[in-house]
Input
Amino acid sequence: MTALLRQITPSTGAVFGLSCMIALLVVLTSLVFTNDTYALFREGGPIEGMSAAFWFVAALWLSVYLIRQRRGALWHLAVLLWAAGMRELDMDKAYTQDGILQLRLYSGDAPALQKLIGAAIVLLILTAAIRLLIRDLPGFLRRIPALRANEWLVILIIELLFISKSIDGLGRKLAPFGVEISDWTSDFAGRAEEAMELFAAILVLQVVVLGVRRAAQRLT
Output
């Protein structure tokens, strides 16, 4: 743990602290202007909006670094971050008859242009994901025992996103097994999902900041 904390410098720690302060400020401001706390966690609400914003900030931060340092070989990382932010805002469903991740868009009667654009975007994301697995995953796994902050933060992010997606629509997922849950439990799962996704997005930004700083130190 000491080795991990030693890697959090004042500048990178400031980004994390500022991110948390912004998130808290948005939540408190939203509470002042609404009598419905559930509105904070609804689709398209402040929590989801902040999650997308942190994804986009992380994507922009990384993109600027890659362009300035001419590290085009890492383009797939930026693509995946931009895609995650857009997915958080449900932009994959906003401009086509069906979502670009839905098979019925390509098998149905949607306009050919929508099919072509959707297929191109999906192909780009798949290419970026495959490139990540082939190019970066082996090195990532080798670095885990070194107790570097980035790798362990990525593991925490993956766990948060996995759990959040698992409890998304919990009542609907349990219904086929004959399990019924109360409205309170269903609402709690929905709020927990949005909160975990927000924290994961904040941590993603921290990973980018740490990674950029470490790369800059190697160049000096």
Confidence is low (pLDDT under 50) at residues 1-10.
